[in-house]
Structure formats: structure tokens, C-alpha cells
Amino acid sequence: MANKSLASAKDAKNDEFYTELNEIQSELSNYTNKFEGKVVFCNCDDPFESNFVKYFLMNFNRFKLKELIATGYKTSPIAGKEIAVVNIPYVLRVTDTTKYLVGTQKDLDIRGAIYFLKTEGSNIMTPLFGNKFIDENKQEIYYEAGDFRSDMCIELLKESDIVCTNPPFSLFREYIAQLIQYKKQFLIIGNKNAATYKDFFSLLKNNQVWFGYNSPTSFILPDGTHTKKVTGLTRWFTNIDHIKRHQMLPLDLGCTYENYKEQYPMYDNYSAIEVNKVQKIPCDYKGVMGVPPTFFDKYCPEQFEILGKTKLLDWANSKDCDFFTPPPKELQEYYKSLDKTWRVQNAYILVDGKPLDVFDRIFIKFTNSYIKSHPEQFNKGDC
Ligand SMILES: C[S@@+](CC[C@H](N)C(=O)[O-])C[C@H]1O[C@@H](n2cnc3c(N)ncnc32)[C@H](O)[C@@H]1O
Known about the structure:
Elements: E1 18-19, H1 21-28, E2 39-42, H2 51-58, E3 67-71, E4 90-94, H3 110-124, E5 125-127, E6 131-134, E7 140-143, H4 151-159, E8 162-165, H5 172-181, E9 185-191, H6 198-205, E10 210-211, E11 219-220, E12 234-238, E13 273-274, E14 289-291, E15 304-309, H7 329-338, E16 348-351, E17 354-357, E18 362-366, H8 368-373, H9 375-378
Parallel strand pairs: 2-3, 2-8, 8-9, 13-14
Antiparallel strand pairs: 1-11, 3-4, 4-5, 6-7, 9-12, 10-12, 14-18, 15-18, 16-17
Helix pairs in contact: 2-3
This protein binds S-adenosylmethionine (SAM).
């Protein structure tokens, strides 16, 4: 069957993209020592179908897991596809896989994991139920069985230490807010654009969430076909510490603000200089710099501070960017007359007196401790 592009599949009902086992393997291999004695919860994962469940079954002993919990969602279109079960969501709780190991095996292989689910699974699973919920507007909502917001799933969340899954993209904000509310560790897949959503950006800025290692390139669709390989649309996000996050961005020491000021124009509405490529971050600039969002991949909190971003929908109320200085009203109107797409909160530089919008920018600066410990970089200039 033909591959479908991830972008066109974006509209697929309920964001049904299933994660490939190899994508899970290549990300989680960076955290193997983080799971000892932990309860892992996969809360958007039909226990029979999810590769997350299979992955943890296959690494249960190596990771020294205390327990694996997985819950499926009632309306999932893949429920019962791979392994036939009655189509109601279940919670699977696994505390031991040893009975299913063969010979010298320390952990199950993929066949063993499927066999485990087929034979043991149906004995140890219990059904999930939905419940009513009254929201802040006093509206009654019904959470289907297996909904991560339902009472039963929240109770399971409370029991768990690390949540690991690929949640529905359309509920990403709610999903991450819940993980933060319950102070859980997590390793999850999300849309890369989430990094620029206001709430999520604040979490990144405050070092409550960071990028994982990889960007999954392909997913499985409900009909079993795979999306085309596309890089950069999705991302692993986590709040579990990892080595890459502490690796400082190697700077080009020849790339100085002192010698190349003309390449780093100051924005007209932000007190920051424009740096159009992460590789071009000047190694000697102590002030605020506007860099492309690809910076998140290179972000090391010991080296840089994140201060804010452009295009905040409610920039006027936001404290994310308090060095933002909107131009006078008349100038705003003039710029708008030159270009209707011009927005006051876009970062722009003036070229021949006309504003030139730049793309989304993240505002960063070197941390004070980095500046102090690298006097050879910062001992010149007035920046
Ligand atoms: C992007 S898919 C990923 C599935 C699986 N975690 C994986 O990685 O293969 C998201 C899954 O969440 C389920 N889902 C949708 N809304 C949900 C909700 N409110 N609570 C729990 N699961 C939900 C969907 O049915 C779907 O199976």
C-alpha cells in the first residue's frame, strides 16, 4: 500500500499515528539507567497493540522496572486488531515476566512479548470505565473509558513514576498540563510546533521540559501502512535528565560580534540582535540574541538562558518577553500599510527604512556563569 505523508495524514481523525518500535528503541536507549524501581505508565496505549508496551515488556528486567501499566482508549480504531480481544479498554499491569523467559533469556524478545500478551495478558487485565466530569463552566463532560483524564486513569497516574507514550496530538496541551500537575516524569512524543505554544514554551523556558534526543521520522497508520519518512515534524519531549542536554553548543570562535557587527542587526522592536542561524551565534555577545527555534535542539541550560519568543498571541499580557518594545501607533499603521501581514509582535529589522519581518525567534543570552568562566570570549567589546 502507498505511504501517506505525515502532513496530509495530519487531519486523520483523532491523530491516530502509532509509534514504530525502532523509534522507541532509539530514544529510550539513552535513558536505560533511569527506570530502576520505577512504575512506568503508558496511558494512551492499547495494551495489546502498542509498541511502547512491547518495548517495556522486552526490557522489563534490564531496566529493573517495578511495574508496567498500560491503558487503552475506548474509541481507539486499532483496539483488537493485532490481538483479538473484546473491544473494551483494559488496564494491563505487569510486575513480572520471568515465567515467559526461555533458556538463558534475560528479557522477552518480540515474539515472547506478543506471546506474553496473548496468554498472560487476558488473565491480568481488568476493564476500565469512564465517568462524568463537571468542568469549571459547570458543564457536564463524559470521559470515555481509558481517557487519560478519567478518574480511573488519574488514579493509575498517581501510582506511576514515569509516563511514556505518544499521546493524541490534538490533546497535547491538556496532556502535558496533567503531567506537570501530577509532577510526573515523562518521555513523550509531540508535535515539534508545540515548542512555540505559549504554555509549552514557558515550560521549556523554565527548564520543566526539554527536548529528547530524536525526532521520530515515520509512524504507523491505523490501516497498518507507514507514513513517509519526514524529519522534523515531531519530537521527543522529556523532563528526565540526559547527557546531550548538558553538552554545550560548540561555538565558532571566529564568529564574533566585535568583528562582524554588520551581520547582526538590532531589531527595531526587541532589544536584541538578529542571529539567523544557530551556527552563527557570536561567541562574544553578552546581550540578548534572537535565534531560530532549531536552537532548542542545541540548548544547554549551563550555557544559555531562554528569555522569550516572538509571535506571542497575547504578548501584551505575557511576561515571556519583557524587553519587547512595540513601536508607536503611527509607525505601526505605517508598517501595516506597507505590508498587511506585518504584525507588531513579529521581530523585524529595518532595511532602507522598511520593516523586514524575520521568522519565529527565540530570545536567548549566555548565562552569567558561562560568561564568567569564558573570559577569553567576552573580554572585548561593549556588548
Ligand atoms: C498518536 S496515537 C499513539 C498511540 C500509541 N501511544 C502509540 O504510540 O502507538 C494516540 C492514541 O491515543 C488515543 N486517544 C485519543 N484520545 C485519547 C484520550 N482522551 N485518552 C487516552 N487516549 C486517547 C488514540 O485512540 C490513539 O490510540
